[in-house]
Specification:
Length: 465
DNA sequence: AGTGCCGCCTGATGGC
DNA sequence: TGCCATCAGGCGGCAC
């Protein structure tokens, strides 16, 4: 839907190209009642013979200023559009409100999803009554650091959600919120209270910069937004993150991630957008018997806190809601003394591929949230090392500041497994998909652990992490 | 009070 | 091919 830059372009077009501010309304047709807030009859009758004097903007709202102190406050929501047409052009399917003018033209409000709303108010008080009374300053207005601190640093909710809150700063929607987070190198999940004063000032200057650029490029046309019927915006090709899931970050090359924050799709770079509520995280990954636990021990000696993923996985399985969900998928599963029969589960999943996929995704999600919770509890300023076999599949690389990948010669791996368990074939089969070749380039450091512990530690000394 | 989730609508897209 | 689920530039209201 239109955000501030798109609304700005629409208003410009209606004023300067369609010359709407020279026109007088003679009749209004309301074809979908819910579009009009308040009395539909009042809306229709009061607008007769009113002249459009000016069109202005507040955040994402369009304000038509009319003669006799009337104003129409209009919000396009997701799909609203205004077109000016000649009277002889027939209405189309989603034309909801038609303003007929005395010069044989009409302003058509078209809205496929019917979310848009408009209300007729008075020039004298329209800013002090809803909906505009609840709308905060645009990024371009004077915003004091005290105002930002009060509205961001006292909140435990995600930066992304704060940026979308129109009562704090208006005009920023889902596209530009993601772009601002990228530009300021802040993870959209960061709770407001972890943002520094500098972060807050950066957010405002970044918002000004990005929205100005977007205005100058005519806004972003992703699907349906058009300045006019045959005129698209051009900023979409300049977007750094929005609509670029899995594509390489333009700053560091790491594949961009898409998650959902409060029900809104959110795309960001997990490596160069820092979550300030979290400690520095070094993630270790590599195949079975590659020596991850030795490397883990090395970093614990260096003062890192070790996050034991095995334990956390057990915790996920012990969670009552998780168990309930698993039991929904597999009713025959037994839960003994609060513990899931994981051997039965494993065997069941070998024969039920679809269930395996669903369950894995569900468990990864649980693991992801629990790890986030644990890292938040440790908090910023600390250093954490975590050994994650399925780092990329579980998306736990979202939390990693640095990734250390350990490689091993397959023959030596087999030897070590034989010594450990006496059955290397089974383990190799079970752990086949720990990571893909293409994941190697996601790592910051790659080491080979084909020799002894002394050589391994020497190699780690040289990394200077 | 602060937060999370659902409903409002239609159409495009992708998986089976 | 169709059928079904999911997703989309937003926001208000409701329940805890």
């Amino acid at each position: 839907m239109p955000e501030l830059p798109e609304v700005n372009n629409i208003i410009n077009y209606l004023k300067n190209h369609e010359h709407l501010t020279t026109k007088t309304i003679c009749k209004v047709d309301v074809l979908y009642d819910y579009t009009i807030e308040g009395s539909k009859d009042y809306f229709i009758n009061a607008l007769k013979n009113k002249r459009i004097l000016d069109i202005t903007q507040k955040g994402k709202y369009i304000i038509f200023h009319l003669s006799d102190d009337l104003v129409i406050v209009s919000h396009l929501r997701m799909e609203g559009k205004y077109f000016v047409k000649n009277e002889d052009v027939e209405n189309t399917k989603h034309d909801l409100v038609i303003f007929h003018f005395t010069d044989n033209t009409k302003l058509v409000y078209n809205d496929t999803r019917k979310f848009g709303r408009m209300i007729l108010l008075n020039e004298k008080n329209y800013l002090s009554v809803p909906p505009l009374s609840k709308v905060g300053p645009e990024p371009f207005e004077n915003i004091s650091i005290a105002y930002l601190k009060e509205n961001y640093q006292t909140k435990n909710i995600a930066l992304k959600q704060l940026l979308l809150d129109q009562s704090i700063i208006s005009g920023i929607g889902n596209i530009y919120a993601d772009e601002i987070c990228f530009d300021t190198k802040l993870n959209p999940r960061t709770p407001g209270k972890f943002l520094s004063d500098d972060d807050l000032l950066n957010i405002v200057s970044s918002a000004r910069k990005i929205l100005t650029l977007a205005i100058n490029f005519g806004g972003s046309t992703i699907k349906t937004y058009h300045i006019a019927e045959d005129k698209e915006g051009n900023y979409q090709s300049h977007l750094n993150v929005y609509n670029r899931e899995n594509q390489p970050c333009k700053r560091c090359g790491y594949p961009l991630r898409k998650i959902f924050l409060n029900g809104r799709g959110t795309t960001f770079c997990p490596r160069c957008q820092v979550d300030k509520s979290l400690p520095f995280v070094l993630a270790l990954t590599g195949p079975i018997a590659s020596g991850k636990s030795s490397v883990n021990a090395y970093f614990v000696k260096q003062g890192f806190i070790s996050l034991d993923l095995d334990n956390i996985v057990h915790e996920v399985y012990k969670d009552k809601t998780v168990q309930k969900e698993i039991k929904n998928i597999i009713p025959s599963l037994k839960i003994v003394e609060g513990n899931i029969d994981r051997l039965y589960l494993k065997q069941y999943l070998i024969n039920h591929k679809a269930a395996k996929n669903d369950l894995e995704n569900y468990l990864y999600e649980g693991l992801y949230n629990l790890v986030l919770k644990k890292l938040r509890k440790i908090g910023p300023g600390k250093k954490v090392v975590m050994d994650v076999p399925l780092l990329f599949k579980s998306h736990l690389d979202d939390f990693a500041n640095k990734i250390l990948l350990i490689q091993i010669n397959p023959n030596i791996q087999r030897e070590r497994l034989e010594k450990r368990s006496g059955n290397s074939d089974l383990y190799l089969k079970l752990n086949k998909s720990y990571f893909e070749q293409e994941d190697i380039k996601k790592a910051d450091f790659v080491i080979s652990n084909n020799s002894n512990l002394e050589d391994l530690y020497k190699e780690l000394d040289n990394l200077n992490i």
